[in-house]
Structure formats: C-alpha cells, structure tokens
Amino acid sequence: MRIRIIGAGRVGAPLGAWFMSKGHHVKFVETNTALLEQVLTGTLPWEEPYLNETLQDEVEEFHITDDEPCDWTFISVGTPVIDGKPLLRNVENIVRELEPETNVVLRSTVAPGTCDTLAKKFNRVIWHAPERLLLGRGLDELDELPQIIGATEPASLINTNEFMRAFGRCFPKFVPGTAVEAECAKVANNIMRYIEFAAGTELSELFEVVGANNRVVRGMMTNGYKRGRISFPSFVGSYCLDKDWQMLSHVTKTTPKLASAAADYNLNLPKRLLNSIPLNGQRVVVLGLTYKPGLDDCRESPSLTIISELLKYGNVDIRVHDPLVDVEAHLMEYFGGPMEGLSTITGDLQAEVRKADVVVLATAHDDYCHTLEFKDEATIIDPSGNLASNSNFIWEA
Fold first, then answer.
1. Sequential DSSP letters for 322-391
2. Among 371, 358, 209, which Cα is nearest to 280's?
3. What is the 3-state composition of the chain as percent helix, strand, coil, each rounded to the nearest 5?
4. Residue 239 in this model has a pLDDT that exceeds 80
5. How far is it, in rounded angstroms, from Cα 288 to Cα 361?
6. On the CB side of 29, how many CA atoms lie within 13 Å of its CA?
7. DSSP state for residue 295 in the 8-state scheme
8. Radius of gyration from C-alpha coordinates of the chain
9. What is the per-residue pLDDT across 88-102, written as a single tens digit (0 to 9) for each?
10. Which domains does the chain have, with CATH numbers?
11. CA angle, 359 as apex, 356 and 361 as ends, to 5°?
C-alpha cells in the first residue's frame, strides 16, 4: 500500500519505519526539513531501538516522493492543550488539504468527539488509531500490541467485513469501535496511569509517616497476590499525562475529580518537598533532566519544575546533570537564555555530588542508582528510593 505519514517526529517516524519494514511504500511529510533529512538518512538523534537501522535499510526501496494519491494518510502532529482547551488548528488545516481518495487516520491524541466534528466539517470519514506506545519500545510494540481503531461511520458498519479488511491491510491486530470510543480509550489509558502514579506515590508518603518501609509494603501487597497493585513512588511528568484529562474535561464541561486531584498531587509534589527543607545559600545537585529514566525526552519533565522552583530562591547554586541529553542546550531553550545560579555538570559527577548540600533525584537513570556517595549530613530528596536503600522521600546522608 501507499501510506502517507504527516508528522515525522517521535510518533510518525517509528510508524513509517514499521510500515516500510512490512513492505508498504511510505511518504513522510514534515515541515521541519532538518528532521525530515534525519528520518530519510536514519540519523535521528533520539534513542529508539532499531529505528535508525530500520530507516537506513528500508528508505531507499520503500520511501516515495511522487504526488500520486495515497491509500492511507496518518496524521501524527502535536495536539497541545492551552489553558485547558485543545488546539486543533493544525489537524484541521491538514484534513482540509487532503485528496478525497485517501483514508484519513488521526494518530494524534485528541479529545472525544474530535473525529466526528472533523467528519461533519469536511464531509468525509475520519478514522482514529491513537498511538499508545512507550517511547523506547515503539517498533516492538507496533508488532506486539493490538491497535485501537475507530471510524466515524455509523456503528452498524464498524464490524463489517469491508471495514475489517480495510484496516487489516495496515495492522494485523486491532480492536474496532466508533471514533469517539477510540478517542475515549486513548485518553482514559493515560488518565488511569496519571491517577495510579499519584496514588502510589501518596500512599508511599503515608507509609513513611507511620514508620513503614514502602518497599516492604509494596512487596507484601503484590507478591503472589493477583489483585495487589501499586505504582512505584516518583516525580511524574510527560508530554501526555497532564493534558489528556484536560481534553476530557473540556469536552464534558466537568472537572473529573480523581484526575484533577491526581494532577494537583503530581504537579505540586516537587514544590512541596523542596519547601520542606532549608535551601537558602545551598549548593543543590539535580540528577536527571528527562521526564523518564532511560529516555532522552525532556518535554514536561518534573526536573524542569524542580529547577524553576529552586531558581525562585535567588541564592541557590543549582547544578544539573543528565547522561542522555545536552543539559545546557535544553536549559537554554527552556529558560530562553542563561540563568544566574544555574549551571550544568560536565565533569566528575561524583565529585560534584560530594560537594552538594542537597541532592535531588529527579530522574532515576541507571547511572545514579546505588552508585553515588554523599557528603555527611547532605539532604537527599528521592521519592523513588533509587539512590540508596533508604525508602524515605527525604533523608540525611
């Protein structure tokens, strides 16, 4: 088949590479010409196993550049939420320009009802197959996971053989439904994770209050007990988790109580922990800038929240390290230039940690876990419990 991928970022590039590896011809459409060149040469700068290798192997044979119509067009562009309102101008502009012969598949996460609105506005069927892959496992999960697929056709047509054959040419495993059902399934997955992360972290805080080791408690809850589940405590951040519940809130004109409570807890945890210790005049080392261990993605990272809070003190010496990204470049981009009191660690990490009055584990990269030594009486902030055997959120070395 001929498949067009609009948006060749962290969602679109793996999808296009996967389609080419299955023998489909793919046309990437990307406004960022530097990014498009990286996709076509298999030199993408982020970590995604097998992605660059797959692109290098398949682009020459399966990438297409002509203007002939494509069987399917997958839209995988950003859908930000600003002040609680989803912005869909980019998606609308793309759909408006597409040829009538192509099947339009919205891969981006959108608020429930978006596909129906687009279908009515442009008088065409809109399919929704939302991405729900873990960064770092994109190609593997495209093989392993069934795809969610919904369409704006009447519900009576969703399970017809024609529908199944059409989408089955793209993905061998999928779960069908209406477009709004697919939209709900995607945002609900992320909302549930957001709530579970908050619940696991808050419970671990409460275990500490009564003198219980949260690791031991988690083991008791889950070991051999199928109904036992609890998330590991941690700072929480990602590009999707805090926006998806806002999408649902916007279209339902309600404030989901559990999701908003989880957002309040997750977003305020860094500030609350920092405010509980003396920081004036202290040297603080922040370990990790990406939002998740093992990834090189800094979007909506809790580390940026932590650094922003520390900068408010005005007299804190803040030093930041991350083994996977160019810390200085990311901080310059985020803050719009150099910030007084903020620097990066490029040399001996252990030496910097030994000098620190406060060490904050923002992202539990393997490089940090149970490998560092601290100066006597240094304050350690580590909800995940990965720096040492101490399970308290805050402790003294």
1. -SSS-HHHHHHHHHTS--TTEEE--S-HHHHHHH-SEEEESS--TTTTTT----TT-EEE-TT--SSS--
2. 358
3. 40, 15, 45
4. no
5. 7
6. 15
7. -
8. 23
9. 999 999 999 999 999
10. 2-178 (3.40.50.720), 276-397 (3.40.50.720)
11. 150
Is residue 77 a contact partner of residue 94, using CB atoms and an 8 Å limit? Answer: yes
Size (the chain), residues: 397
CA distance 357 to 380: 9
Label residue 161 exposed, middle or buried (CB < 10 Å: 0-12, 13-18, 19+): exposed
Tokens of 10: 């962290």
pLDDT at 37 over 80: yes
List the structure tokens of 187.
Answer: 């945002």
What is the residue-wise DSSP string for 218-282? HHHHHTT-TT---PPP-----TTHHHHHHHHHHHHTS--HHHHHHHHHHHHHHHHHHHTS--TT-
Bridge partners, 321 (sequence order): 287
CA distances from 264 to 45, 154, 202, 268, 269 (A): 33, 39, 12, 6, 8
The owner of tokens 């993408």 is 44
Q: If you ran DSSP here, which 8-state letter would residue 76 be given? A: -
Give residue for tokens 């210790």. Answer: 277
Q: Report the 10 Å Cβ neighbour count for 336.
A: 8
Distance CA 263, CA 258 (A): 9
Paired tokens of 137: 């496992």
Tokens coding 117: 């609105």
Rounded-to-integer distance, Cα 90 and Cα 112, Å: 17
Average pLDDT over the chain, rounded to an integer:
92
Q: Are 118 and 95 in contact (CB under 8 A)?
A: yes
pLDDT digits (tens, 9 = 90+) for 278-310: 999 999 999 999 998 988 889 889 999 999 999
| pTM tops 0.85 | yes
Count other C-beta atoms under 10 Å from residue 377's C-beta: 8
- Dihedral (CA of 99, 105, 111, 116) sign: positive
Contact 121, 154 (CB under 8 A): no
Q: What whole-number distance in Å separates Cα of residue 131 and Cα of residue 12?
A: 9
